[in-house]
Write a structure and sequence with these properties.
The protein is α/β, with parallel strands linked by helices and about 300 residues long. The chain folds into two domains: about 160 residues, Rossmann fold (3-Layer(aba) Sandwich), CATH 3.40.50.720; about 120 residues, Orthogonal Bundle (N-(1-d-carboxylethyl)-l-norvaline Dehydrogenase, domain 2). The protein has eleven helices and nine strands. The strands form two sheets. A six-stranded parallel β-sheet has the order 3-2-1-4-5-6, sandwiched between helices. Strands 7-8-9 form a three-stranded mixed β-sheet. Helix 1 links the parallel strand 1 and strand 2. Helix 7 runs antiparallel to helix 8.
Length: about 300
């Protein structure tokens, strides 16, 4: 098994999440070579100690390569597509993937990698880029326990807590369940916030009361600033990505014979939001859509609110 202290690390995928995560890894004292489809996104990481890779194949000699991309097809492309990570004679020892992808797609990828002698660990996360930047991610892994034990020091450098939930693709099931709840919670939070505001309670007052109640959570607190000030251009997660995850949730529910009426209704609400053309904005714009349906016009309350992650 790879010795953590001596292992070489590669990283593929530097979107909002990937960039924040690899910065935490570098700040934790680990060296990493990085590659991104848009090379300009990788260059700023040099000042944090990263080495730039000219191609995915340049990372094939690494002991461990982390991947953080958007979809199952994206992961297949960076691994097996033209010039993919494992398409050359040299291959990494382990791939650790933190993307949000389907259970079936992950199982297919695992089989292909294992046939090449490459280990595979699923490690999806709970939290957005701001949470990742603050080092407060939860990272949940599945796959061979020995691979998890090997990767744990790297994961701990990026997260407040890491967990192993079992073999195979169980972490994918966890992530699908997590993000399905994610959708249902934002749907409900927007609905009750509009209800309270239309009845006459200032939006920031209502959200503060929820945050200080038994219903408050890290999630409600860090969404409060955007819901109060309507800063939907500060993107943490787009409506299209949320719809993708809700679809994964509904497919998993069908596969396992589980009825999820709240999730089904939420999926349709998110689909309608996407159909209205909301693209590169935060999914919390659902608040505006819900208010519009209720005949309520929202205005920013211009409040300075501590979301619990500031300055970290």
């Amino acid at each position: 098994m790879t010795n953590t202290a001596q292992a070489t690390i590669g990283w593929i995928g530097l979107g909002r999440m990937g960039e924040a995560m690899v910065k935490r890894l570098l700040k934790g004292g680990f060296a990493a070579s990085v590659w991104n489809r848009t090379a300009a996104k990788a260059t700023p990481l040099v000042e944090y100690g990263a080495t730039l890779a000219a191609s995915k194949l340049d990372l094939a000699g690494c002991d461990v390569v982390f991947t953080m991309v958007s979809t199952t097809d994206d992961l297949k492309e960076v691994l097996f597509g033209d010039g993919g990570l494992v398409t050359g004679a040299v291959k990494p020892k382990v791939v650790v993937d933190s993307s949000s992808i389907s259970q079936e797609g992950s199982a297919e990828i695992r089989a292909r990698l294992q046939a090449m002698g490459v280990g595979y660990l699923c490690t999806p996360v709970s939290g957005n880029a701001k949470v990742a930047k603050a080092g407060k991610l939860l990272m949940v892994s599945s796959g061979p326990r020995a691979l998890y034990d090997m990767a744990r020091p790297y994961l701990q450098a990026m997260a407040r807590k890491v967990m192993w939930v079992g073999e195979g693709e169980l972490a994918r099931v966890w992530k699908i369940a997590h993000n399905t709840m994610f959708g249902v919670v934002i749907q409900n939070l927007c609905e009750i916030t509009v209800l309270a505001e239309k009845a006459g309670i200032p939006r920031h007052v209502f959200l503060e009361s929820i945050n200080d109640s038994v219903l408050g959570s890290m999630y409600t607190r860090y969404k409060t600033p955007v819901l109060t000030n309507l800063t939907f251009e500060q993107v943490t997660f787009t409506p299209k990505l949320l719809l993708k995850d809700m679809d994964l949730g509904m497919a998993a529910a069908k596969s396992y014979g589980v009825t999820m009426p709240a999730a089904a209704a939420t999926r349709e609400s998110v689909s309608r939001m996407v159909g209205r053309g909301h693209d590169n904005v935060d999914f919390a714009i659902l608040l505006q859509e819900t208010a519009s349906d209720a005949g309520l016009t929202l205005v920013s309350e211009n409040k300075v609110i501590d979301d619990g992650l500031q300055g970290r």
